[in-house]
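Work Package 3 (structural annotation) set out to generate three-dimensional models for the target panel prioritized at the project kickoff. During this period the team completed the workflow that converts sequence records into C-alpha cells, so that structures can be stored uniformly alongside our sequence database. As a representative example, we reproduce one entry of 166 residues exactly as it appears in the project archive.
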Amino acid sequence: MVTPLIRDVPDFPHAGVRFKDLTPVFADPTAFRAVVDALAATAPAPDAVLGVEARGFLLGAAVAYALGAGVVTVRKPGKLPVVADSQSYTLEYGSAGLELPAGALRPGQRVLVIDDVLATGGTVAATCRLAERAGATVLGVAVVLEIEGLGGRGATHHPVHALLPA
C-alpha cells in the first residue's frame, strides 16, 4: 500500500541523486497511519522521539504521540534560538550539520531516532551522537525507507529498523 506512493525524483537535490519523495505517503491517511504505527512498534517505550529535519519532524511527532513520548526536533544549523550541541557529517553529495535544542534532552532519557530515508547514514549517526553527548540512551533508529546499496546501517552501532528497502 505504501510503496506505490513513494515517488522517485531524479537529480534532486543534486545531479545524479535520486530523491525518494514520501510526500504522497504522508498525504494518504491510510498509508500515513500504517507507517506511523509500524515505526512506533520498533522501540520499547522511549521517553522521547528525535525527529530529524524536515520529514522526520512529521514522522517523529506522530510516532511520539502514538507512544505517549515527547518529541525533539533535530534541526539544521541556524534554525534554533538556543543550541545545546551541533554535529557535522557528510552526505552522498556533500556535507551538512545538525543541532540539538538546549534543554530538549536530559541525561538518562531513552530515545528513538526517526527519519524518512536512510542513505549513507550520516544524518542518523550525527543525531545519535548528539543524543549520546546529551546523556541520552539511543534505543534505535527507525526509518521508512532504506537505500541498502549506500551502507547507511554501518554508520551507527544502534539497531536500525527500516520498513522498506529501496
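The chain has four helices and nine strands.
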